[in-house]
Structure formats: C-alpha cells, structure tokens
Specification:
Elements: H1 12-24, H2 33-40, H3 42-45, H4 53-72, E1 77-81, E2 86-91, E3 97-98
Antiparallel strand pairs: 1-2, 2-3
C-alpha cells in the first residue's frame, strides 16, 4: 500500500504472489489476479534498479528490518509528531534528531485493483 500498488489488504493468494515478486523478482506461476496483473503490467513495473517495483518492495522490507533492529538496540526511538499526525524515528544520541527516510515512488498508475466478484 505504501507504494500505491495495492489499495486494500491482500488475500492469501495475492500475498503469495507479492512475496514471490519480492523474493524472485518475478511471478512465474501466478496464484491470483494480482500475479496476472504483475505479468501483464511488467513493462511498467520493471526498469533500472532504482525505478523497479521489485527494488522498492525489497528496499521497504529491508529498511523496515533495519529500523526495527536499531529500535531494538536503542539506537533509535519511535516518535509521534502531533502536528503531522505521523510517526518518525529519532536518534537519542543526537539530541533526538529525526532521521529522514528517502521518499518512495508511486505505482498508482499501474495499481492492482481486485476484480469484482460475481456471486
């Protein structure tokens, strides 16, 4: 959701395809419409490293793990900004200076929309 590629929580088979995309760099055997969408939109999702959806999925996963570890080791503290109503990470050893995370690009133009179900 953070990248604008999906707009709602995913179902199990959709998550499976998204994990396969992040781990393998592609979705070989789609388990869901999301996997089909990735494959049919591949020309707009793939690209140079810093412009690839796969790159940013991986970056968010590893950045999250890196931040979690730094919080666990008391090198960062989670702070809440009342004005912006957002959370951030502060460095206790630097007078609680907030760290800036690089902004994520948006993939809203090729966002996955779950097909309507006909019951």
């Amino acid at each position: 959701m953070k990248l604008g590629f999906v707009e709602a929580p995913l179902e199990d088979d959709e998550r499976e395809d998204l994990v396969n995309l992040a781990v393998n760099g592609h979705v070989e055997n789609p388990a869901s419409a999301l996997g089909d969408h990735v494959n049919s939109s591949w020309g707009e999702l793939d690209g140079p490293s810093e412009r690839s959806l796969v790159h940013w999925l991986r970056r968010l996963v590893f950045r999250g793990a890196w931040l979690d570890q730094r919080v666990k080791e008391s090198e960062l503290e989670i702070m809440f900004d009342e004005d912006s109503q957002t959370f951030g990470y502060a460095q206790p050893d630097r007078n609680y200076e907030l760290i800036e995370l690089s902004p994520e690009p948006s993939w809203r133009r090729v966002k996955y929309r779950r097909p309507e179900r006909i019951d």
